[in-house]
Specification:
This protein has 232 residues and is α+β, with helices and mostly antiparallel strands. The protein is built from 5 helices and 17 strands. The strands form 5 sheets. Strands 10-9-6-5-17 form a 5-stranded antiparallel β-sheet. A 4-stranded antiparallel β-sheet has the order 1-2-3-4. Strand 15 and strand 16 form a beta hairpin. The chain is globular. It holds the Pfam family C1_2.
Amino acid sequence: MEGHAYAPVMEHFSHPHRLELCSMEQSLAPTTCSCCRQMPSGWTYACRACNYYLHASCAQMSELIRHRAHPDHPLDLLPVSAYPDGCFDCDACGGNGTGFSYHCGDCGLDFHPLCASAPASVTHQGHPHALTLAFSLPPRYTMGFTCDVCGGKGSKCWLYRCADCEFDVHMSCATGKGREQTQVMENQLAQILLGRGRGTGGVDGNGVEDGSWNRFLGVGSAVDISARWGRS
């Protein structure tokens, strides 16, 4: 595999044991990533004794963020759902989740980490203009929307749209989803850390002076990383 900037061993707040960096083939993974619930592949942190795995990119998720979809309160990264059944409904994509979540305890809002990290705008081969991430539908869309890529229905979920052309797209149709999206994020993060000469696998909670980490998570567009990286 290509070079990386991840630490060989790390401690993560979600697990009591130290995690070791390894390179995994998806077909050989014994279980899913505890954060995103996709199959581990590529650079992954593992506690093999506990069968606990985190994609290297997922292990870099900040424990506290502010998001423009919910500006009134910060969102905490929870390794376990806040609800008794161990599941949550993502208020971004509408899907169910059993892995990590960004959670607002005051308002009962929950987001998949990958949804919370979605870029503020994307391009799609099916449309000539950039598509902007929208957190709600225009008021006139009383019956939801029809995705102009897959033809499926959408309702109260986030979407990407070109307002000028009224071109509306599911988040997953606009960006790709699952492990493909995770792999893109992991590659981007590795390049950011390599460019900064960092080998710790951690990210400064005050942000990156050149804005690379902010751009990676959409800071200045949808996400603002807290001034702290770890909990205190």
